[in-house]
Specification:
Helix content is about 35%, strand content about 35%. It contains five helices and seven strands; from the N terminus they run E-H-H-H-E-E-E-H-E-H-E-E.
Length: about 160
């Protein structure tokens, strides 16, 4: 198993993983129209370029030669933001998410940052409960206008040792 820094050559793979993850993970939470919009906005070449220009770094988790998930991190003030963390459906429940969280925690520690932070959709109880188990706590409830949609999220943080 390895986690490696993604490049533009990996965009298609990340897009495919996002498609699989969003179609299953947000089914029944978000309207199909919103899922389509979010995927086209964030997981096409322009979305990747915008994310990397603002400082996001993409990393891919590969197990036995197969990409099973990805994480995007961004240092911000005294914390490291996890901007994206998605696994393919067949990769869930195998410890990959925990490995990506631990990877982000190690990166934060290397940078001298004492906190991890992320947003999770308030309706995504599976992800929310996973983050609670990883030591995150809710610090804020937010409604973020995003084009024609509102992202109803919890902001969660984890203090690092």
């Amino acid at each position: 198993m390895e986690i490696y820094k993604a490049t533009a050559l990996d965009w298609e793979s990340i897009s495919q993983m996002a498609e699989q993850s969003w179609r299953t993970g947000y089914a029944g939470i978000l309207a199909e129209e919103q899922i389509d919009f979010m995927l086209s906005r964030s997981y096409k070449e322009q979305g990747f370029e915008e994310a990397t220009q603002k400082g996001d770094t993409f990393f891919i988790l590969r197990d036995e030669g197969i990409n099973v998930g990805f994480i995007t991190i961004l240092p911000k003030g005294d914390l490291l933001r996890i901007e994206k963390l998605y696994l393919v459906p067949t990769g869930q429940g195998k410890g990959y998410g925990k490995q990506l969280i631990n990877f982000a925690a190690d990166k934060a520690t290397e940078l001298g940052l004492p906190y991890l932070e992320l947003n999770v959709n308030r309706g995504n109880t599976n992800a929310y409960n996973f983050y609670l188990k990883q030591g995150f706590v809710v610090t804020e409830t937010v409604d973020i206008p995003y084009f024609a949609y509102v992202l109803d999220d919890f902001v969660m943080q984890r203090k690092l040792a």
